[in-house]
Write a structure and sequence with these properties.
It contains five helices and six strands; from the N terminus they run ββαβααβββαα. It is α+β, with helices and mostly antiparallel strands and about 160 residues long. Strand 4 and strand 5 form a beta hairpin.
C-alpha cells in the first residue's frame, strides 16, 4: 500500500506500507511516527530529471536526488527507498545509500523494448520449433522401423 506524504521539503513523496492496516495506522499518527511501519520511502521526479546532477537551489543535500534519497533513508525508519523519474527506477538500501553509486536500477523503456523484442523472437522461433518437433518425430519413426518395434513397444518407449 502506498501513502502520499503531505507537504514539501525534506520528506519523501511516498511511503510504502506492507498492507492497508499499516497505512491506516500511519495516517492517524503524528508526522514523526508516520514512517514507523513503512517498508520503503519513495521519491518521484519529472521524466527528464537526472538523478546524478545537482539541480535548483536550497541545501546541497536536497539539490541532488541521490543525496536526497540518502537523507530520507537516514531520517526515516524504512531501510529501503525508491527513486524514480518514471523512466529510471532505482532501489537503494540504507546500509549503502551513502555511497551514492550502490543501487539496483531498472530502465523502464529499455525493459519494455526488450520485452517487445522477446515477443517478436518467440514468434520468429515458433516455425523453427515446429520443424524441430517434426524432425524429431521422423527420426523416431526411422529408429522404430530400424529396430523393428511393434506398436505396443513404441507405446512403451513413448510412455503411452
Amino acid at each position: 500500500m502506498q501513502g502520499a506524504v503531505l507537504g514539501k521539503g525534506k520528506r519523501p513523496d511516498y511511503a510504502i506500507f506492507p498492507d492497508e492496516e499499516s497505512l491506516n495506522e500511519a495516517s492517524s499518527k503524528p508526522e514523526e511516527d508516520y514512517y514507523r511501519r513503512a517498508v520503503a520511502v519513495g521519491d518521484a521526479k519529472a521524466w527528464k530529471v537526472s538523478f546524478d546532477k545537482q539541480r535548483g537551489r536550497g541545501s546541497f543535500e536536497m539539490q541532488n536526488p541521490r543525496f536526497q534519497i540518502d537523507a530520507y533513508l537516514r531520517d526515516t525508519p524504512p531501510k529501503w527507498a525508491i527513486l524514480t523519474n518514471g523512466r529510471l527506477w532505482r532501489l537503494y538500501h540504507e546500509s549503502t545509500s551513502y555511497k551514492l553509486d550502490s543501487f539496483y536500477e531498472v530502465n523502464l523503456p529499455a525493459l519494455l523494448a526488450l520485452q517487445a523484442e522477446f515477443e517478436v523472437s518467440v514468434e520468429k522461433l515458433q516455425p523453427l520449433r515446429e520443424r524441430i518437433e517434426a524432425t524429431d518425430r521422423l527420426i523416431d519413426a526411422v529408429v522404430y522401423r530400424l529396430y523393428g518395434l511393434t506398436e505396443e513397444e513404441i507405446g512403451i518407449v513413448e510412455g503411452k
